[in-house]
Amino acid sequence: MILDCRVKPGNDKYAAGTNSSMTTSERQALQALLAWYEAMGADEAIGEAPLDCFASVTQPLAAAPLAPERMSLGTRVAPSPSPSGGASAARSSEAATLAELEAMVAGFDGCPLKRTAKSLCFARGSEKARIMLIGEAPGRDEDLQGKPFVGRAGQLLDRMLKAIGLDEGQVYITNTVYWRPPGNRTPTPQEVEACAPFLARQIELLSPKVLALLGGAAAKSILGSSEGIMRLRGKWLSYPCATGDISALATLHPAYLLRNPAAKRLAWRDLLALKAALDAS
Ligand code: URA
Q1: 136 lines ligand 1 (CB under 6 A)
Q2: Structural domain tally of the chain?
Q3: Which of 13, 109, 129, 265 is the one with CA 20 to 30 A from 34?
Q4: How far is the CA of 255 from the centre of ligand 1 (A)?
Q5: Could you tell me if the CB of 149 is within 6 A of ligand 1?
Q6: Cα(90)–Cα(68) distance, rounded to whole angstroms?
Q7: 178 CB under 6 A from ligand 1?
Q8: 129-172: per-residue pLDDT in tens?
Q9: Beta carbon of 216 within 6 Å of any ligand 1 atom
């Protein structure tokens, strides 16, 4: 799909709201077109030139397992071989620091989300954090600011963390994908897999004591479990990392809590469990 949101040369009546010669029906047609674009997920103008979102990417999609082994509720399974993912997985392990990894992700063209996003949202928080939180995908506010969890869900997350005595200087926050999916749709398994080797290396480099997986998508991606978040949440699992197993707890996504405030009761229990694990580590 090619979306051309440019002002037509020589026809400035398409500069919405600035030209009084536009008729009511032209204005309505333009508003209907913009509403259609927005409903299709094109709710940001990301550049001057039109973009073909479906054009093939220059680099093949990486499809590598996230961890050396994945754990599915107590059962460790060997990773499935990934014919096309070796290149990006190998590259990610070359990053010696989180800054190097971020630069590598910024130069990576294997995830199509990069083409439609404004910014890379790599992480926010402290590289010395003992707790790493992983969400699903950046949204509109995150794309505008280039940082994960800075919108409404992020503000709730910050309040939740504050309730257990943690601020941005003590946590490290990222997502399963580093770019906003158009219209905030769920990232596809291919998009998650393209970013997975980088996320695995990010976990390895940060080497946190505790992983908090925010919502079903993060839990599924990190733990390789097909269980729903309601069954998974609140249980301590182990994420096999090259530097040693890391305790991982899945909990409810803050965006879900905004829509279902009654579920905050469950999230509070998970937060207390996270705090206890940090205190004990
Ligand atoms: N939801 C997420 O999962 N991640 C963000 O960064 C923002 C909202």
Answers
A1: yes
A2: 2
A3: 109
A4: 8
A5: yes
A6: 12
A7: no
A8: 999 999 999 999 999 999 999 999 999 999 999 999 999 999 99
A9: no
